[in-house]
Write a structure and sequence with these properties.
mainly alpha
Length: 118
């Protein structure tokens, strides 16, 4: 794989008159330190398809699994869903995950702005 990647990078750089690695930059990650940020990050990810569609439940994402409309064996929404319903935390003002996602559609920047990766 390394040989293939190296040869493809050399080909691509020569063809498009550029230099450097093709797949630049290290993987970036951020520590999720508190529960509210964890939940809002999940909501933000599930709202991303709104740029391309109005129906989040049919979008290519795991949102339908979180709503219980679809079941995929390798998606485990229980950690996030445990914050809602009868065992909800005091910082959550809604009862369901769907209500949480829809109520805070416009607040992504306010909640996540200072924690985004550059």
């Amino acid at each position: 794989m390394r040989s293939l990647s190296t040869r493809y990078s050399m080909y691509f750089n020569k063809k498009y008159d550029r230099v450097g690695s093709l797949f630049q930059g290290p993987y970036k990650s951020a520590l999720i330190g508190d529960e509210p940020y964890f939940l809002h990050l999940s909501r933000y990810i599930h709202l991303n398809p709104l740029e391309y569609t109005n129906d989040l439940t049919s979008a290519y994402s795991s949102y339908s699994e979180y709503l219980g409309l679809r079941k995929t064996s390798w998606i485990h929404p229980n950690k996030i869903l445990s914050y809602f319903g009868s065992a909800s935390k005091d910082f959550i003002k809604v009862k369901t995950y769907k209500e949480f996602v829809e109520k805070y559609k416009k607040d992504s920047g306010l909640v996540l702005d200072n924690l985004t990766l550059e």
